[in-house]
Design brief:
It is built from 7 helices and no strands. It is an all-alpha fold. The chain has 2 domains: about 70 residues; about 60 residues, no CATH class. Helix 1 crosses helix 4 and helix 6 packs antiparallel against helix 7. It is elongated, with a radius of gyration of 31 Å.
């Protein structure tokens, strides 16, 4: 038998809880959860817990029951669609419809550090400024970052495939384009 969590049990037993809710409203019993209710739910979904496990579930199941009561207390019309899509855009928010040119803010004067490893903590804007002023090349930066990935990747488990040759090839191509004045 596959392992099923108490949360899954709580969801499946929701039908039994509905019956318990009716009993609560009629009897004014503060906690309708009992080992017997859990046992009834077990029979419905084909599980079998020990008495100790049933007893340890009661608090969580009662909390779930209270949550279901709160959800059911909100009256929703049938026209309200289910919340199956998360939309982070605030209600009434309007996007700009006109296109504007991208304006990059310059990071100011950026100094090349004595140790190239310190560049790992510079922002992208600062690195771009160093490349634009030809204080560092794309290839130098790529080599520094590749060395850091080799050094810290095994410890941080942050690298799946290190494509060193491709990275160096692309860095050299970028440096050639910069030398031609394309960037």
């Amino acid at each position: 038998m596959k392992h099923r969590s108490t949360r899954a049990v709580a969801i499946v037993i929701a039908g039994v809880f509905s019956l318990a809710l009716t009993a609560v409203s009629q009897e004014k019993n503060p906690n309708p959860m009992s080992p017997g209710v859990v046992a009834d739910g077990e029979r419905i979904i084909g599980l079998n817990f020990s008495e100790a496990k049933r007893d340890s579930m009661l608090g969580n199941l009662f909390d779930h029951l209270k949550d279901y009561e709160k959800i059911r207390s909100v009256a929703l019309a049938n026209s309200v669609p289910p919340a199956v899509l998360f939309n982070p855009i605030p209600a009434g928010f309007r996007f700009e419809k006109s296109k504007r040119a991208f304006k990059m803010s310059l990071p100011g004067k950026v100094v090349l550090p004595k140790n190239i490893e310190d560049l790992a903590f510079y922002s992208v804007g600062q690195l771009a400024e160093l490349i634009r002023n030809r204080k560092v090349t794309s290839e130098q930066l790529t080599r520094m970052y590749l060395e850091r990935l080799k050094k810290y990747g095994p410890k941080l488990h942050c690298v799946i495939t290190l494509t060193e040759d491709l990275a160096l090839q692309e860095a050299k191509r970028a440096d050639a384009e910069i030398a031609k004045g394309k960037c």
